[in-house]
Every structure is written in structure tokens, then in C-alpha cells.
Specification:
The complex is a heterodimer of chains A (162) and B (226). By secondary structure, chain A is α/β, with parallel strands linked by helices. Chain A contains six helices and five strands. Chain A has a five-stranded parallel sheet, sandwiched between helices. The two termini of chain B are 33 Å apart. The chains are: A alpha/beta (162), B alpha/beta (226). The interface between A and B is medium-sized, with 28 and 25 residues. Chain B: Keywords: Hydrolase, Membrane, Transmembrane, Transmembrane helix.
């Protein structure tokens, strides 16, 4: 569960959502920025780029023509996510973070990356969906909490009660 | 010896103490100032506490000089409320109802307090070994709801809960928790049946969806789940 330098590995899952950005910022603010340059964890930031075919999700005439455009858009989104993650790290003077992009379903990718790096902790954001939306759309944080072979931190924006 | 430890743990526990509240004007701190670890009798909850001590001790470590600046760890234990009256489908003619006598209630509550004291004493020893500033809190009620309530009142930065590491089938199996009380002095015994945690792992699941702060679900190692 530790790297060659004896540090535990932390994996942070990111996408293009506001919740994911908040989760990364929150994690860096609490566990990295105050302890520079001796960070308590080796940081891996992971983005899962959906497969173009699965993203289109329909078969029929014209599908083949659509796929390249969808793929280009997904690549563009992935590049934006990586740039944003880099910018967030730089703004907090957090250096040495490894940013990786993999193609596939986010839930499976994150669990695989955890195993690959022997991570101690996986950090994911939460959209804060209700029970019905979670059931229909499927929750990445729920899946990881039950299937990842490490401890899972679910970061969500606190609701401000007026 | 055990009684002294229990007494010490109960003294340090903040049962009566109101949680500190921050004013709205106060800016959120950038370090994890307050972590809460919820514990129960399970090994997985103590593994979660040990995990926090091992991985986050540098965030919570305290010295005499930096006492005001360092983070605070709060260990919470929730006692399940004792029902005075219980009914269950047994005996002649269907359901049997049982009402608990006052002496029985007292002895059960005393046993609960002793259990809480022992748990908190063990938790405090673990934290003191790493010089971590710790406070303890005993609450009564439905564990998952009380934890989420306490987290909101205390303006917690991070809630830590253990996971029992059970698969889907086990997690959603309904389990009856049987509590047997034997009163030897009166030569009778009463069996109470109360539903324990209806869904195994439901505390971590519930807190993940309802706690108004980030949550860390600590997974026990494979050998603990076997």
C-alpha cells in the first residue's frame, strides 16, 4: 500500500463535473497544500474517458458517422479535465502529482487503478443525486465504496441550510 | 482495573458537553481541523480508527506548543435505545408481549454504559499512543441518524466509518438481533427480540448519502472479512 519512498498512494477520480473539481480542491487543501513539500501521500489523479461507441449508445443508420465526432469531443473533454487538474495543482503549489487518462467506464477504471497502484485511499466526488436518480444512472461513488480494494473517501459539497 | 479505565473513559466523554459551533463569519480552515470516527463493538470500526491514526496522524499530531493549531479527533459511539416493551411472534396463540421491569431496564442501561466506557477507553488508548488530541462522545438513538446529526452540529471536516466488507447478498440480508436477559434472582427469564441493523453495512451506506460532510469509508483487510 506504499510507494518505493514509503508513502501511501492516494488516487483521486476526476471528470468534467463541478463536484469532481470540488473534491480535488478539497483534497489538495486538506492533505497536500499545508504539508508541502513533504506530502503524506503519493498522488495519482485519474480521469476515465468514456468509449465513443458506448457514449453514442444507439445502433442504426448514421451511427458510424457520428462516432468520430463523439470521440473527438470526448478527447477534447479529457484534455480539458487534465488541464484543469494541472491548474488546480499548480494554484496550490502541489507538485509531483501524476495525471492519467484511461478509456472505459469510470467505475471499473478507478477500481483497476487502485489495484494497479496498490492505493491506500480512493477519493471521489458525489453528485448528491436522490435515490431514484442513483438507481437509474448508477453512482460511481456507491460502486467504488463497495468494490474498490481500499478505503474510499466521498467528498461532497456541504449543503448550506438557510 | 477495568472499572477504573471505564470510569476514566466516561469522564473524558463529552456526553453532556455541547458540540462547539463556528460562527458564520468564520472562514473555513484549509487543514482538517475536526475529524469524527464512529465506533461500535465491531473489529472493522476499530480498524478504521487505527487506519486514521496510521495515515492521518501528521494531520492530527499535537505538541504542547501547537496544541491550539493541531486537529482534533472526536470518537463517537452510539448506544441503541432500549425498548421497554417488546412483542414477537412466539408462544401460544401467536404474538407474545413482554414488558421490561425497572430493575431490568437499569441493569441493561448499566451494561450499555459499561460497554460504551470500555470501547471509548480502548479508543483513547489507541489515540494517546500517537499523541493525538481526542475527545469522546456517547449518543443514544439510531446509529446512522445520530452520527449524521452530530456531524452537522459539530461542523465536521471529515467523518470516518468502518465498512464490514460484506458482499451485496450479505449486506441486504435482514438479520434479527436477539437479546437474552436472564433474571436468576426471580428464577425466570425474558427473551427480548429487537431488530438490529436491518441492513448490514447500512450505517456506512446511509452516512455516505446523508452526512453533510465528506466521508471516509475504511475497508478492513481481506483476512478480517473472512
Amino acid at each position: 500500500m506504499a510507494t518505493g519512498d514509503g508513502k501511501s498512494v492516494m488516487v483521486v477520480g476526476v471528470d468534467d463535473s463541478e463536484q469532481s473539481t470540488y473534491a480535488l480542491e478539497w483534497t489538495l487543501d486538506r492533505f497536500f497544500a499545508p504539508y508541502a513539500p513533504n506530502y503524506p501521500f503519493k498522488l495519482f489523479i485519474v480521469h476515465a474517458k468514456p468509449n465513443a461507441v458506448s457514449a453514442v449508445g444507439l445502433a442504426g443508420p448514421g451511427t458510424a458517422e457520428v462516432v468520430p465526432y463523439v470521440d473527438a469531443d470526448l478527447k477534447h473533454t479529457a484534455a480539458k479535465v487534465v488541464e484543469k487538474a494541472k491548474a488546480i495543482c499548480q494554484s496550490r503549489s502541489v507538485h509531483g502529482a501524476v495525471i492519467e487518462v484511461f478509456e472505459g467506464d469510470a467505475r471499473n477504471i478507478l477500481c483497476e487503478v487502485v489495484d494497479k497502484h496498490h492505493a491506500s485511499i480512493l477519493v471521489v466526488g458525489s453528485h448528491g443525486y436522490g435515490a431514484i436518480k442513483r438507481a437509474v444512472l448508477g453512482s460511481t461513488s456507491d460502486y467504488c465504496a463497495h468494490h474498490a480494494h481500499c478505503s474510499v473517501m466521498i467528498v461532497k459539497k456541504p449543503k448550506i441550510k438557510v | 482495573m477495568a472499572e477504573e479505565q471505564a470510569a476514566t473513559a466516561m469522564e473524558t466523554s463529552a456526553v453532556e458537553k455541547q458540540p462547539e459551533t463556528t460562527t458564520e463569519a468564520e472562514a473555513p480552515s484549509l487543514t482538517t481541523k475536526r475529524m469524527v470516527v464512529a465506533i461500535d463493538e465491531s473489529d472493522s470500526s476499530f480498524y478504521a480508527l487505527q487506519w486514521v491514526i496510521d495515515h492521518f496522524s501528521n494531520l492530527l499530531l499535537t505538541t504542547a506548543a501547537a496544541e491550539a493549531e493541531s486537529g482534533m479527533l472526536t470518537v463517537i459511539h452510539v448506544q441503541s435505545p432500549f425498548n421497554h416493551f417488546a412483542a414477537f411472534p412466539a408462544g401460544p396463540g401467536g404474538a407474545t408481549a413482554v414488558y421490561a421491569s425497572s430493575s431490568m431496564i437499569e441493569s441493561v442501561k448499566k451494561a450499555q454504559q459499561e460497554t460504551s466506557a470500555a470501547l471509548l477507553s480502548r479508543a483513547l488508548q489507541m489515540c494517546r499512543a500517537k499523541q493525538i488530541r481526542t475527545e469522546t462522545l456517547v449518543l443514544e438513538g439510531e446509529a446512522k441518524e445520530m452520527i449524521c446529526e452530530a456531524v452537522e452540529k459539530m461542523h465536521v471536516d471529515l467523518l470516518v466509518v468502518g465498512s464490514r466488507g460484506l458482499g451485496k447478498i450479505k449486506r441486504y440480508c435482514i438479520i434479527n438481533n436477539f437479546f437474552l436477559y436472564i433474571n436468576l434472582s426471580a428464577y425466570y427469564f425474558v427473551c427480548f427480540v429487537r431488530f438490529g441493523r436491518a441492513f448490514l453495512g447500512s450505517v456506512s451506506d446511509y452516512c455516505a448519502h446523508h452526512a453533510n460532510c465528506p466521508i471516509l469509508i475504511v475497508k478492513p483487510p481481506k483476512e478480517m472479512t473472512k
